[in-house]
Design goal:
The chain has 215 residues and is α/β, with parallel strands linked by helices. Helix 2 packs parallel to helix 4.
């Protein structure tokens, strides 16, 4: 599903990512760990073609990045962003439409995810009237509504209480069973260990650990 070969990102004199290699297979979860500034978000942005690597190659589904692939990718950025005056339905439909997802499937999916993530409110509730935790759940729905094959989550547990962290961990394992490939970053090693098939640790842009949890 996803393969990075010798990916490097240089900003003038600063080396953000240094010859990074890893593979993410279908139905596999990769936990990405590292201190602030280790290169985690930069790696995600290069996978999504938001920024270009200085060198190296990225393959998704065996080929180079293309705009068509965005239909099959779900991304939760570290910097959360929702339109506060929209209702939940309007917000999620906006992202669903961006991915070219069917309106009929969108309505079915919205009801499913509202229930699965235990969002407090209705589809007509305005984003600005939700708690921060429920706003984050809505952003997760926006990430997952179009049934992506590749899901990239940047610090998805940030802002969630222990009960909702467990709900999200269960959701990740359910997605894995469906064959979804997932890569996520987290500072909490306990969460990473619970659901990850493989762990990748970055230190100052370099790969320091990479392998199965058992390893």
């Amino acid at each position: 599903m996803l393969k990075l070969i010798d990916i490097t990102k240089q900003y003038n004199d600063f080396l953000a990512v240094d010859h990074l290699n890893f593979t993410l297979n279908p139905g596999e979860i990769l936990g990405l760990v590292g201190q602030n500034g280790a290169g985690k978000s930069t790696t995600f942005k290069m996978i999504l073609n938001f920024i270009k690597p200085t060198s190296g190659e990225i393959f998704i589904d065996g080929g180079a990045f293309s705009e068509d692939l965005l239909k099959y990718i779900g991304f939760l950025p570290e910097e959360r962003g929702l339109y506060l005056d929209m209702t939940i339905e309007q917000q999620v439909r906006y992202f669903s439409d961006l991915h070219g997802y069917s309106r009929k499937k969108f309505k079915e999916g919205l009801g499913f995810w509202m229930n699965r993530l235990q969002v407090k409110g209705t589809t007509k509730s305005k984003i600005k009237n939700l708690s921060k935790g429920n706003q984050q759940k809505v952003q997760l729905i926006c990430t997952l509504i179009h049934e992506p094959r590749l899901v990239i989550l940047d610090e998805p547990f940030s802002g969630l209480d222990p009960v909702n962290i467990e709900i999200l961990l269960d959701v990740l394992m359910e997605l894995r069973k469906r064959g979804t490939s997932i890569i996520f970053s987290s500072h909490n090693m306990q969460n990473v260990e619970k659901v990850s098939d493989k762990i990748l640790m970055l230190v100052n842009g370099k790969r320091r650990l990479y392998g199965s949890v058992k390893e």
